[in-house]
Structure formats: structure tokens, C-alpha cells
Amino acid sequence: MLIGVVGKPSAGKSTFFAAATLIDVARAAYPFTTIEPNKGVGFVRVECVDKEFHTQCNPRSGYCVNHTRFVPVEMIDVAGLVPGAHEGKGLGNKFLDDLRQADVLIHVVDASGSTNEKGEQVESGTHNPALDVRFLEEEMELWMLGILENNFGKFARSAFSTKSQVIDALAKGLSGLGVTNAQVDAALLKSSLSEKLTDWKPEDHRKFIHTLRLI
């Protein structure tokens, strides 16, 4: 599993990454300190079953101390995301391309409200951190929507005789995001969209992507 550490510039992503991996990375109080993604390994602590067998295990990966397993997890710290990233603003295109490698995301938010949506310093408490959560979700959806629409014309012109063919085509078009057939099937069901892609309106594209992101 690869965990992506995401958020706007200057939110503390690299500080969190350094604490989780014990890797010293560049950190500074200005936007876009991180250009190239930082990669490292952190450890998740879980109770080890060896305690029940009154023994001490010797795992092939990670380590075990006093019946506590330290399971290695790969992490990547990517460049900060700003509004309009899906259009290439800031380091948007690079951020999103790096992001697609991750299986899970940790969103680091500046809860003090002392940086605006661009990561610039402002008076503490004057920026609403909830807006950072909303815009990151929005940017991710618009990025996914762009990928869908780049391929949608080809999908709509194809003659699909079964639902499984529609699912296969959509999953293949979004495969770069790690989307599976099962996720596409679930998104179609939950969004109540027609299996006939030529019936879809532009707002249906967004509805499908929004539903898919939440799965």
C-alpha cells in the first residue's frame, strides 16, 4: 500500500511526512517547498498474534517488539494543491500525476487558519480550514472528470450490448486512477444513471464521478 500525503502548500505535509518516516525533508514557511515528491516508509503499530502463542515472532517485513508489530507502509509527500490545480495552476498537473500512484490519501489541514487557500501566511484564525477540505475534494473530482470526458466520446460511440461491456469500458478509461470494474458498477448503481452512455448529459458525468469518488 502507498499512502499519499496531500493538502495545500504550507499546511504541514512535509512536517507530518518527516515525523512519520523519520526522513529529513525540506520544510519552510513558504509555498511549494516540495517540488519533487518525497518518498519514505512509515510504520503502523498493531497488536501481534504471537502473544497468544507465548512466543516472539520474527516478521519478514517490519519488526515486532513486545508483541507489537510495526508494519511498514510506503508514503509519498507530494507538492501542494491550490484551487484550479486541475487546470494546471500552481503545480497542479504534477501534483495530480504524482497523486495517482497512491492507494490511500491523508489530507493535512492547517487547523489554525493561518494560511489561505494558496498557502500564503494570513492572520491566525482568518481562514476557514473547512474550505481547504472542500476545495481539495473539488479539485480531485474535476481532475477525474477531465479524464472521463477525454475518453467519453469514444465510449458513447461504441455499441455496447450488455452492462458488463459498459463497465469494462469505463473502468478501462479510468484505469490510470486505479478504478476497478466493481467500483464502476457500484457507482452506476448508486447514481441511478442509464447504462446507455449516449443518454448521459454533462451533469451526469459529474454525478457519476462524484459517486465514484465516494466509493
Q: Main β-sheet, in a few words?
A: 5 strands, mixed
Percent helix, as a range, is: 25-40%
| Computed CA radius of gyration, to the nearest angstrom | 21 Å
How many structural domains?
Answer: 2
Name the CATH superfamily assignment of the largest domain: P-loop containing nucleotide triphosphate hydrolases
The shape is flat
Number of strands: 5
- The assembly state of the depicted protein chains is single chain
- Count of individual helical segments: 6
Contiguous low-pLDDT stretches (5 residues minimum) are none
CATH fold-type name of the largest domain: Rossmann fold
Strand content: 5-15%
Give the key terms.
single chain; alpha/beta; Rossmann fold; Helicase, Ruva Protein, domain 3; 2 domains; five-stranded mixed beta sheet; 6 helices; flat
Can you offer a commentary on this structure?
- The protein folds into two domains: 2-126, P-loop containing nucleotide triphosphate hydrolases (Rossmann fold), CATH 3.40.50.300; 135-214, Helicase, Ruva Protein, domain 3 (Orthogonal Bundle), CATH 1.10.8.
- It has six helices and five strands, in the order E-H-E-E-E-H-E-H-H-H-H.
- It has helices at 13-21, 92-99, 129-157, 163-173, 181-191, 202-214, and strands spanning 2-6, 38-47, 63-65, 68-77, 104-107.
- Strands 1, 2, 3, 4 and 5 form a five-stranded mixed β-sheet that branches.
- Helix 3 (129-157) crosses helix 6.
- The longest helix is centred in the middle third of the chain and has 29 residues, at 129-157.
- It starts with a strand and ends with a helix.
- The model has no long low-confidence stretch (mean pLDDT 86).
- This is Redox-regulated ATPase YchF.
- It comes from Candidatus Iainarchaeum sp.
- Residues 1-215 form the OBG-type G domain.
